[in-house]
Amino acid sequence: MARTSPTEVTGYRNDGVGTAVALVNAVTADAPVPTPEALGALLTSYNFKVDHPLTEDEAEALRLWARRLRPVFAENDEARAVDLLNTVMGEVPMHPHISDHGEGPHLHYGPPGAALVDRVRANTAVGLAFVICEYGAGRLGVCPDAACERVYADISRGPRRRYCSKTCLNRNTVAAYRARRAAPPAGTEPS
User: Fold this and answer.
1) Neighbour-count burial of 124, counting CB atoms closer than 10 A to its CB (0-12 exposed, 13-18 middle, 19+ buried)
2) Domains of the chain, first to last
3) Residue 156 has pLDDT above 50, yes or no
4) Could you give phi then psi for residue 174, rounded to 5 degrees?
5) What is the pLDDT of residues 123-151, one digit of tens each?
């Protein structure tokens, strides 16, 4: 059965995998420090219930969490990626349980009544764990574009993704094409 959406990775109503990617990318070195308002909007866009404006303490906790997740994306060795993610998951209060608050039964990973930051931490950690278990750690990565530090998660059925966006893919494809065109033909000496 083909997956049709990121939420099918975990069965949860929000996209923990997409949220993890977005959070990590929001705190990359080339991005401005995301404000509490920006982080609240980011979480809302991934279907988290954000019922109050985020405080600076909550925003800083999310920024720190994103920095904790980044090494999982950057690790090329699957065993080390698993160890990193297990360590990170060990830092998160989890209490999986089925909940129905008007949206139909679904699995919650954080403890009942968990604060927003703990819910985000639990869902992003579990989302990444499902990716590694279902597809392998090679489906998580850092964009190889020299001018980019963004991460990605590939849960597609087709070919494996290597770039964070079509923009980076296209820029690198064009650069490689131009380099090939500028190179002298094989078997000839440069003048």
Assistant:
1) buried
2) 7-162 (1.10.3300.10)
3) yes
4) -65, -45
5) 999 999 999 999 999 999 999 888 899 99
